[in-house]
Amino acid sequence: MAKIIGAPLADIPWQDKPEGYPYPVWRYSANPIITRDNLLFANSIFNSAVVPFGSGFAGVFRVDLRTRDQVIVTGKSEDGINWKLSDKIIFYGYDPRICEIEGRYYLSWVNLTPHGTTIGLAVTDDFETWEQLEDATYPVARNGVLFPRKIDGEYYLLVRPCDRGHTPYGDIYLCRSKDLEYWGKYRFVMGPVKNWEMTKVGAGPTPIETDEGWLMFYHGVITSCNGFTYSMGAAILDINEPWKVLHRADSFLLAPHELYETVGDVPNVVFPCAALTDAATGRIALYYGAADTSVALAFTTVDETLKYIHEHDMIK
Ligand code: BMA
Description:
Elements: E1 26-27, E2 42-45, E3 49-53, E4 56-65, E5 70-77, E6 83-85, E7 91-101, E8 104-113, E9 116-124, E10 131-132, E11 141-146, E12 155-161, E13 172-177, E14 184-190, E15 200-203, E16 208-210, E17 213-224, E18 227-237, E19 245-248, H1 259-262, E20 270-278, E21 283-290, E22 294-301, H2 302-311
Antiparallel strand pairs: 1-22, 2-4, 3-4, 4-5, 5-6, 5-7, 7-8, 8-9, 9-10, 11-12, 12-13, 13-14, 15-17, 16-17, 17-18, 18-19, 20-21, 21-22
The structure holds beta-D-mannopyranose.
Beta-D-mannopyranose (BMA) is lined by residues 47, 94-95, 166, 230, 266, 269, 271, 289, 292.
């Protein structure tokens, strides 16, 4: 049995796998959990991230306003499913991730600059007051995802250098920092290999520590004659040298299929940004943006996912 290394958290959202369902990740039956109706003046609410906070959960949400400005707001929930969003804009930009490191909550997001997007960083203790740190990268980069603990005394950040458009320039790198201010020692982690991810790949939720290495869920993009399709894959990274990919599934674990994933402002997108885990049972609840329109929830266990990665391992 594979194990999550972390805290037990009995109250994360959960539904058992439907009888006879053949795949390792299954959807919440009442998806989507957050729609544009959760906030006045929202055109859409999608790629968003959550963490355990207090006796419940807190989150950072990507909202595209009715002006189509891209902003980030916070939200709170007792059960991880029903969310109360704040209408206060904390930052401009998109695709937020949130990561607890040593008791503080770090936001990484796609920050907007006149020269292109960078990885913005900010920290909070209460989800009310935020201290913005230096941007972690130069423009242009997206999909900045922090590791939940220091490795050999340094903070680690996954990042996807890119250009200003939606062009096929999309490999995952990582860098590290002693102080969350100066980042360096860039290492290539992985690029597209299989057809379903051929255009680009980008890290998703905060990596999950397991007894086999870091479990990294990521998105992969294929370009068809009808545009992009975003799906979710998974890989295991070395625990001490996480730029080394030990195992990687050759096929996606979740791809657009339901109507709320295939129809929306940008059709055919599942874009994972967060995972809640329960180390006691190995349960994982995954939060993903659906069709750039709403937030949805899916479930797996560390055992199911690692078994799938090993059975479909492209790294022999
Ligand atoms: C990416 C980002 C995501 C979005 C995706 C599909 O480049 O902008 O926020 O979900 O495209 O539109």
